[in-house]
């Protein structure tokens, strides 16, 4: 199992801080994982990612890496870590969500999922066993099982069938994991994924089956796919009650900074989301006082940093006026500077959460910060 060593817990919520260890390093929780889908965090080089942003772990994607550069290239390179020159932990999603998004190009059955590549339309078939083999070739430190992410809304029968399929695949994933070995000498962990849409009894069934199979830890999937935000929180709160206390709990694909703070209070330890980098590339900047749109004309002669409370490379060296100029002029540097800031902000946010939990002041602090984050600029 992947043990979570808990250092401090909040008296008023399920929030906790701690750490887990992999062969490639320790990860402090709560943690946000920058998304490097294709073996790179978009617009940010690894020097800034490690030294400036202080990322402890990144996420890559099995589906995309399988399509390109392909398993053969990854194995020839000695795995993804060497290929992308990243020496810290990597988590790989199984590609289930990406295949889910190919609604018209996929077919599901008990053995796996047939899909057509979004690149060239070529036909492929992922079995649970194949997904494990690909992640062995990638060499990720944390591997995810193949699952089916039910759409929202869906009826109870669809969600129930999806849970049955996901849990059956999970059993095959676990067997393939046991029957295979890491290729590069580093231990790999396997997470099960809880599904069940917005139906509480299905979420409970999913957790119970996954824990019966026994995984190194567990993730909550199938949320932030269109359901009302309060319903998402309700399902997180309900589901974490059934997950082991001594394992890191991973909420997949969430979300905005205020969503992360709320989910931490509901017992979540790990997060990933494309939002900080995607928003950065579209000139939307996260700050401690809400978001900024850097194409707004009011920043044309604003020589303050993006966020006066931020110590990132961008804020320490450049102004809002300069960043707006770069976006208006369509200069590539705009994407890098904005992405550095947004990722730094997310990692700084969870770092401050860890500090507040150790001080015993998380509850009041988080309420205050959520109010600040949702201010309109």
Describe this protein with a few key phrases.
377 residues, alpha/beta, TIM Barrel, 2 domains, 8-stranded parallel sheet, 3-stranded antiparallel sheet, 15 helices, 16 strands, 42% helix, 18% strand, globular
How are the secondary structure elements laid out?
Elements: E1 5-9, E2 16-22, E3 25-29, E4 31-33, H1 46-52, E5 58-61, H2 62-67, H3 71-77, H4 80-84, E6 90-93, H5 96-100, E7 106-109, E8 112-116, E9 123-126, H6 128-138, E10 142-144, H7 156-179, E11 189-194, H8 200-213, E12 217-220, H9 229-240, E13 249-251, H10 257-265, E14 270-272, H11 275-281, E15 284-287, E16 290-293, H12 313-317, H13 320-328, H14 333-359, H15 362-373
Parallel strand pairs: 4-14, 5-6, 6-10, 10-11, 11-12, 12-13, 13-14
Antiparallel strand pairs: 1-2, 2-3, 7-8, 8-9, 15-16
Helix pairs in contact: 6-7, 7-8, 10-15, 11-14, 13-14, 14-15
Architecture overview:
The protein is an alpha/beta fold. The protein is built from 15 helices and 16 strands. Strands 4-14-13-12-11-10-6-5 form an eight-stranded parallel β-sheet. Strands 1-2-3 form a three-stranded antiparallel β-sheet. Strand 1 (5-9) and strand 2 (16-22) form a beta hairpin.
The CATH homologous superfamily name of the largest domain equals Queuine tRNA-ribosyltransferase-like
In terms of structural class, how would the helical and strand content be classed?
A: alpha/beta
The strand count comes to 16
Gross morphology is globular
Q: Strand arrangement, largest sheet? A: 4-14-13-12-11-10-6-5
The CATH architecture of the largest domain can be named as: Alpha-Beta Barrel
Helix content range of the residues, please?
A: 40-55%
In whole angstroms, the N-to-C terminal distance is 45 Å
Sketch the major β-sheet. 8 strands, parallel
CATH class of the largest domain: Alpha Beta
* Beta-strand percent range: 15-25%
| CATH fold node name of the largest domain | TIM Barrel
Mean pLDDT: 96
């Amino acid at each position: 199992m992947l043990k979570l060593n808990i250092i401090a817990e909040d008296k008023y919520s399920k929030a906790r801080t701690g750490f887990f260890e992999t062969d490639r390093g320790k990860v402090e929780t709560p943690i946000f994982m920058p998304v490097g889908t294709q073996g790179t965090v978009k617009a940010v080089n690894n020097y800034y990612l490690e030294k400036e942003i202080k990322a402890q772990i990144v996420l890559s994607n099995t589906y995309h890496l399988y399509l390109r550069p392909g398993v053969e290239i990854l194995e020839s390179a000695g795995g993804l870590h060497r290929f992308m020159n990243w020496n810290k932990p990597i988590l790989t999603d199984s590609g289930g969500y990406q295949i889910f998004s190919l609604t018209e190009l996929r077919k599901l059955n008990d053995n796996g999922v047939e899909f057509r590549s979004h690149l060239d339309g070529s036909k492929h078939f992922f079995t649970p066993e194949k997904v494990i083999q690909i992640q062995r070739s990638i060499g990720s430190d944390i591997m995810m099982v193949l699952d089916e992410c039910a759409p929202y809304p869906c009826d109870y029968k669809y969600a129930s069938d999806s849970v049955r399929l996901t849990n059956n695949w999970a059993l095959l994933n676990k067997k393939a994991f046991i029957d295979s070995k890491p290729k590069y000498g580093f231990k790999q962990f396997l997470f099960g994924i809880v599904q069940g849409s917005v139906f509480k009894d299905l979420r409970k069934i999913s957790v119970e089956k996954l824990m019966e199979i026994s995984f190194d830890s567990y993730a909550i999937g199938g949320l932030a796919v269109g359901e009302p935000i309060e319903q998402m929180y309700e399902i997180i709160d309900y589901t974490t009650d059934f997950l082991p206390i001594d394992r890191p709990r991973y909420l997949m694909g969430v979300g905005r900074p205020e969503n992360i703070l709320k989910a931490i209070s509901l017992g979540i330890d790990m997060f990933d989301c494309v939002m900080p980098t995607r928003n950065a590339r579209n000139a939307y900047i996260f700050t401690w006082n809400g978001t900024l749109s850097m194409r707004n004309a009011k920043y044309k002669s604003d020589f303050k940093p993006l966020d006066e409370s931020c110590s990132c490379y961008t804020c320490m060296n450049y102004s809002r006026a300069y960043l707006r100029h770069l976006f208006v002029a369509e200069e590539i540097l705009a994407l890098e500077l904005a992405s550095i800031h947004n990722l730094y902000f997310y990692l700084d946010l969870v770092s401050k959460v860890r500090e507040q939990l150790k001080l015993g002041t998380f509850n009041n602090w988080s309420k205050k910060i959520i109010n600040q984050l949702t201010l309109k600029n």
